[in-house]
Amino acid sequence: MNILILGGTGRVGGQIVTYALDDGHHVTVLVRTPEKMQLNHENLTILQGNVLNKDDIVRALHGIDVVISALNTDGTTTLSKSMPCIIEAMENKDILRIITIGTAGILQSRISPHLLRYQSSESKQKSARAAEEHHKVYNMLKQSKLDWTIVCPTYLPDGERVGKYRTVSHFLPEGGIKISVPDTAEFAFSQIKSSDYIKMRVGIAY
């Protein structure tokens, strides 16, 4: 399979790149700074570009079967500003499958089910800015033609790969407190072969 990974130099994105290469796929990454990619692999294509540039997105999507976006908020609006370009380019090329890394803040609240977690007392985050960015992306994907899945981890330490975790559609697993980067990446990567969570948010935790 030909996979485009956005955010491939980040914690989760970098781990997804490794899993995809280990599984025998061809991986393309679009990065602003190619030097940040520490990997060298015959099935890895590194493209220099910017997710905010529509032409770069179109170029990166050439021959691609599925997109995995592990872009994070980084205190900017890159996440919400890049998604319209990504959606439009994917729809134009009839590439429908996208898996993105979100945040548990955009899952439904168990305390106030009509609210998202970040909008309710369930959230312990002092700032809602990152969740608001992910919320914008969620709304865009809902309105698109794409077959999307948003993987929504809670507290995300680097940690070890455990290989056992709980996932629930639209909610955080009850009592879920954390999930490691490797396990989040493993689950997100596994969704390229799964249709269990099409057009759904997925809460993930131990």
TrEMBL record:
Which ranges carry the NAD(P)-binding domain? 7-193
CDD domains tied to this protein: BVR-B_like_SDR_a
**Gene3D superfamilies given in the database record:** NAD(P)-binding Rossmann-like Domain
The protein's matches in SUPFAM superfamilies, at most eight in alphabetical order, are given as: NAD(P)-binding Rossmann-fold domains
A molecular-function term among this protein's GO annotations: oxidoreductase activity, acting on the CH-NH group of donors, NAD or NADP as acceptor
Q: Extract the PANTHER family matched here.
A: FLAVIN REDUCTASE (NADPH)
The entry's protein name is: SDR family oxidoreductase
